[in-house]
Every structure is written in C-alpha cells, then in structure tokens.
Amino acid sequence: MAALASSVQGKSPNLLIRLLARPTAAAGLVVITLVVLAAIFAPLLTPHSPSQLSIVNRLTAPNGQFWLGTDELGRDILTRVLYAGQTSLSVAFSVVIVSSLIGIVLGLVAGFFRKADAPVSRVIDAMMAFPDILLAIALVAALGASAFNVVLALGIVYAPRMARVVRASTLVIRELPYVEAARALAVPTPVILVRHVLRNVTSPLLVQGTFIFAQAILAEAGLSFLGVGISPDIPTWGTMISAGRQFMNSASWLLLYPGLAIVITVLALQLLGDGLRDLLDPRLAKDI
C-alpha cells in the first residue's frame, strides 16, 4: 500500500507513451477518444436532426441513405446514436465528478481522523450492501426522474467506491514521515489533506474513475431502459434501446446499434482502466 500511495511521485513523465505501448490500453484510449469526438462533432457528421420525423421512412432497414436505418418515427438511427452519445457520456462523466467529490471527502475524513473512521466506514459499508441499480432506482424515485437527479443518484451510489479507495490510501499516507513532519511544524490540517494526502491518491482515483465511468454508462442505460431515468424525449443509448424493444423481431437494428455503442464504449473504458492501473501501480509496473 505504501508503494501504491506514493506512486504519483514516482510516475514517469512519458505516461502517455508508456500507455500507448500497451496494445490493449492503447486500443481502449483510441476507441474512447473516437467515441467522444464522434459525439462532440455529431452535427458535422450527419445531415439529419435527431428529432426529425419522417413517417414515410419509418422502420427503414439500413441502406445508402440511412446507414443504420430509421426508427418507428422515421428518425435516423445513426444521428440519434451520435447525439445520444453526448447525453450518455456527459451524464456518466458528471457521475464520476459527483462520486469523486463525495468519495474524496468521506475517504479523507475516515482515513485521516481516527475517531471518524468507524462511523464513516459503517455508512460506506451500509451503502455498498445495496445493489447499485436498486439503490439508484430508489434514489431516482425519491428525487424524481431528470438528468440532474440521475447524476446525483448515481453519484451517491458510486461514491462509496471512491471513498474506500481514498480511505485505504490515506490510512497509509497519514503515517508517512513527511506527514508527521508537517504535523510537527503545525501545518494546518486542511493543507496537509490537500497538499500531502490528496495529491498522493490521484493515481488510484484516476483508475477508479475510469471504471466508474463505464459503470455509470451501464447504470444510466439501465435506468432509462426501465423508464425511471432521463426523459424519453432526450436521446440516450438507454432510451433508444427501451423504445426499440417492441420492434425487436421486425427491426432489430433499433436495439443493435445503441447496444453496440454501449458495449464498445464500456469495453474501451475497461481496457483503458486496466492499462492505467498497471502503469500507475509500481508493484504491477515492474512487469511491464
């Protein structure tokens, strides 16, 4: 754990080059970059609008005009997949930010202050005892279905995972000589937490963040599929799958392409996370 906690200080400046040297991690980075760019530049990549109706072209199979076909209202599937990526990726990224903020606070408090460790750890354990999707459904049902509430609910759901990572590293870092020296010099506790503790847990946080990013995409799609997430009027990969399930036998492309978008994005994030973990953990980096 001591080596893991101090991994940031020993990182090589050519981390990106080392990451790209690993085929699986490089593939994950390239794919997720392409997915993000495709979502950002969706208006330039397709001439259609995600809400443009064309009843004449409803349920059209993939062809030269509609590369991925159309849905039950004649909307272009390719266009909706690209625009849905904007929502799904932004929601998942926001979940990472919210869960990180909550998890960092809980983890630092539990790991640095001995008296607070037991009660905060029990709260974390209690939250992790519930299945993620069930807890998310309960929170969204209590808060109401909206993009903001979905982000808040999923942020709360995944915060304990961040908190456990921060707490584990903080427990080690607080006993290191430079932290003891800072205490002896009467350095304010907030300064110690930010300057000496938090900066040394960024590596495990970064790795955990990539995994939460992937899990948040799946969770948002699950909530939207169940009808308790983002409004069906807003295209997301989950809402597209939910709307197309009734045409599963006659128009399978309605489910196939948004499903592939989810699978490709989540797989790329997992590969990237594995590569980052191997590079940022000195115990694993020895074998690279």
Give a description of the structure.
The protein has about 290 residues and is an all-alpha fold. The chain contains 14 helices and no strands. It has helices at about 1-5, 15-20, 25-40, 40-45, 75-110, 115-130, 130-145, 145-175, 175-185, 190-195, 200-225, 235-245, 255-280, 280-285. The relative contact order is 0.17.
Structural class based on helices, strands and sheet pairing: mainly alpha
Helix content: over 70%
Order of helices and strands: HHHHHHHHHHHHHH
* Ends apart, CA distance between termini: 19 Å
The outline comes out as elongated
Provide a count of the helices.
14
Q: What's the oligomerization state?
A: single chain
What profile does the largest beta sheet have?
none
Unreliable segments (pLDDT under 50, ≥5 consecutive)?
1-13
Number of strands: 0
* Average pLDDT reading: 87
Radius of gyration: 22 Å
Q: How much strand?
A: under 5%
Summarize the structure.
This protein is mainly alpha-helical. The chain has helices at 2-5, 15-20, 23-40, 42-45, 77-112, 114-128, 132-143, 147-173, 177-184, 189-197, 202-226, 237-244, 253-280, 282-285.
Write the layout of secondary structure elements.
Elements (H helix, E strand, L loop, with lengths): L1 H4 L9 H6 L2 H18 L1 H4 L31 H36 L1 H15 L3 H12 L3 H27 L3 H8 L4 H9 L4 H25 L10 H8 L8 H28 L1 H4 L3
Helix pairs in contact: 3-5, 3-13, 5-6, 5-8, 5-11, 5-13, 6-8, 7-8, 8-11, 9-10, 11-12, 11-13, 12-13
